[in-house]
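In practice, a research group might receive sequence data for several interacting partners and want a quick structural hypothesis before committing to experiments. The following worked case mirrors that situation: the sequences arrive first, and a predicted assembly follows.
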Amino acid sequence: MDTMTTPAVQAPRSPVTRKDVARYAGVSTAVVSYVVNGGPKKVAPATEAKVQDAIRRLGYRPNAAARALKLGSSETIGLVIPDNSNPFFSLLAHAVEEAAAELGYALLLTNSDGNLAKELQHVRNLAARQVDGVILSSVLMEPGLAELESAEIRIVLLNHSADAPGFNSVGVDLLEGAKTAVGHLIGHGHTSIALAMGTNTGNYYDSREEGWLQALAAAGLPEGPIVRSPFTREGGYAAGKRLLASADRPTAIFATSDLQAVGILRALHEAGVSVPGDIALASFDGSAEAEYSWPPLTTVKQPAKAMAEAAVSALIGAHRGNESEHLIFPGELQVRQSCGCP
Amino acid sequence: MDTMTTPAVQAPRSPVTRKDVARYAGVSTAVVSYVVNGGPKKVAPATEAKVQDAIRRLGYRPNAAARALKLGSSETIGLVIPDNSNPFFSLLAHAVEEAAAELGYALLLTNSDGNLAKELQHVRNLAARQVDGVILSSVLMEPGLAELESAEIRIVLLNHSADAPGFNSVGVDLLEGAKTAVGHLIGHGHTSIALAMGTNTGNYYDSREEGWLQALAAAGLPEGPIVRSPFTREGGYAAGKRLLASADRPTAIFATSDLQAVGILRALHEAGVSVPGDIALASFDGSAEAEYSWPPLTTVKQPAKAMAEAAVSALIGAHRGNESEHLIFPGELQVRQSCGCP
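A structural hypothesis for the assembly, expressed as tokens:
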């Protein structure tokens, strides 16, 4: 409790200025500026240490609001995702946070809770907060681009697997991923393969359905049953029960998300149906939960880190500027036991 | 493409001011201010609609940086959590976001990745960004309070279950929660109950260990084996394998987090051990993943929403000000099948 040598304790509530720091460290205010902003001029290590010590002792905080006004940048980006309690989106959000931090940007995270109106409201709120741009993972396969344009903020669409004229977008190859997963189930000898897909795709065609169809067609197999449910555990659970009750019960299911597959697994377990013995299962996303379900899920892994880095780069990094570029990443089949592999 | 009636298209890059909006809507700049800030004076609905239309058409964005300078508030709070890919923390983060939004605040979210140095760095960075306060869910049971104080920013500790002098804190009753869960396993007739606990508790005593001990002592039972591992699925998996290999293999396990329990389940399944037949399991947190594991986990649910609201209220809401208040919430046992209940 040495109050004599720590000015911050003597006057804890008075705002500490750059000038105070300069005086305490015995340097010019310009040098304090260089240390705080990492340039433009270099500062000798010993001097920097003195300044950092003064900053710490005095409790100096560079005024970010004043800095944002001056720079015309808040060094912050916004991220809108449907639901960060979906492990795939929490993984994606984490990856975006890390990629933004690499460039010195902080992340304002918002959840749209699968609600389109909330999504647009978040985009507008983020714009009003002067973020440098927004990464939007829309609840719809095809977000309302005209309304997004009206928000007057730079937007990159993430987890978006189709062209979006006027927007940068980053996504995964849904069609090829689905084809690979369904093809793998066919390789296990299945001839009746159901599709458990999402409901919130708007009017847009989910290419995973096309991938499922193409894989079946290529093997000369008939279409299995289709059930639609929300991209949630509960949605998958309901889908699983419906498939179990259907007249043409399939011997395999391709689910368009891990979360739905986890719900399907519960429905199958409760009904005493063995997986993969009675019904095999493959899914899409590659979240951690898929690895720890029982049996572990064979799933198409989306390269979340690479996708997040590409979106951040398009928004504020090296690839900024090309406004209509669409980057598509390949998914990778992760083979575990739910498909029938040992 | 009616460029004659939409000024934003004629001059898309010039900054639109409050004056432009006022002129377009045919109102005073004060009225624009009331609409944008929701007060202090009320505006007639028809006038508000005109102003909102003008804002939308002109692409006006109130300057948040200027506003922050004027108000001395960025209307933003920071949240530091160990890992948002842990479903309990993603649930907590979501609840904090909603509680902050209720008060008109946005959320800057950062992950410390279980790293104490990163946690402190995040707190300091958030302070430099002029957030109005930070909610910290520390990686340690007992964070370095002196170092946090040196960050010179208002901090509320969340998910913190002990007194923290000089700080508001919000947590769950770990001891009673653990006692209840272990007592429930004892009620199923178990006499050898292991404890799977976390490693990153610093020098602080995790009261869940005390709860486990007290429940065993109250029933006159001996202490079961203890394994320590990280609060992750992988950590639980390793803990499960070690318990299976131990000389005094328990007939029941109390895990201090759902994520560890999910890993333990995998280890038991792989070894062909039936749950709850051969080994029963109960855990702590009450995350969604616990409901959808197989068998579903009996777990002590932390009231994430109430805890998040209390933390936000202590930081920026009605309960702001009382700097040393410690709020502790009771956990609630959610009985599912992993314990042996039907």
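Before designing any experiment, note the following. The longest helix of chain B spans residues 87-102. Residues 7-62 of chain B form a domain with the 434 Repressor (Amino-terminal Domain) fold (CATH 1.10.260.40).
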